[in-house]
């Protein structure tokens, strides 16, 4: 059972609830969501050094000169 089917099943079950129970459910969901920590936002400078091992031993000038040669 994939997540979409699970969500659709949950929505179907929620529609069967009375208004008071739906409101209680909303409150509980809001409480759960409120306890989720936001994802860390990364800065471009956080990427510094990530390609260091990939580019080790490669002459950048030669690489660029080779890439700029279009046939």
Structure in a nutshell:
About 60% of the residues lie in helices and about 0% in strands. By secondary structure, the protein is mainly α.
State the end-to-end CA separation: 52 Å
Q: How much of the sequence is in beta strands?
A: under 5%
> How are helices and strands ordered from N to C?
HHHH
Which ranges are low-confidence, i.e. pLDDT below 50, for 5 or more consecutive residues?
none
Would you tell me the overall average pLDDT?
87
Count of DSSP H/I helices: 4
Q: How many extended strands?
A: 0
Shape: elongated
C-alpha-based Rg, rounded: 26 Å
Structural class: mainly alpha
- Measured as a percent range, the helix fraction is 55-70%
> What does the main sheet amount to?
none
Question: Could you explain how this protein is built, in words?
Answer:
It is elongated, with a radius of gyration of 26 Å. The mean pLDDT is 87. The chain has a domain at 1-36. By secondary structure, the protein is mainly α. It contains 4 helices and no strands.
Element layout with pairings:
Elements: H1 3-15, H2 19-34, H3 52-55, H4 60-67
Task: Give the tags.
elongated; 4 helices; mainly alpha
């Amino acid at each position: 059972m994939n997540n979409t089917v699970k969500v659709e099943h949950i929505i179907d079950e929620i529609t069967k609830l009375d208004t008071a129970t739906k409101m209680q459910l909303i409150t509980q969901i809001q409480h759960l969501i409120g306890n989720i920590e936001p994802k860390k936002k990364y800065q471009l400078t956080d990427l510094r050094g990530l390609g260091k091992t990939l580019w080790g031993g490669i002459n950048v000038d030669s690489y660029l000169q080779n890439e700029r040669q279009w046939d």
